Amino acid sequence: MITFKSKAAQDLDVLKDFAVYVLGLVGKQLGERGVITSDELDGAIAKLEDAVSQAKQARAEHAGHFHEDEPDHAHHEVPPSLAQRVAPFLTMLREAKAQNADIHWGF
Length: 107
Hints:
alpha+beta, four-stranded antiparallel β-sheet
């Protein structure tokens, strides 16, 4: 587990694999310790929102391939969307931006 901390938001505990993924989306790497500074928050938010937008578009294009309206169509489990998975982290980024606070992990 990795815990993201900020004086502007509640601690956010995520699985290590997810931390690697979401930090990669915002241009960071998971090290033993790290920080997203208040100066980096605008860029991080924009990158994450762009990734969510692209994922929504890809998901919408893929939705037509499920053929759910066909009578003999087997049910498919739909995994959580990127927007759903990153929502808590995006909220933390926005709260930190509003209070001009850093986000850090491993300290």
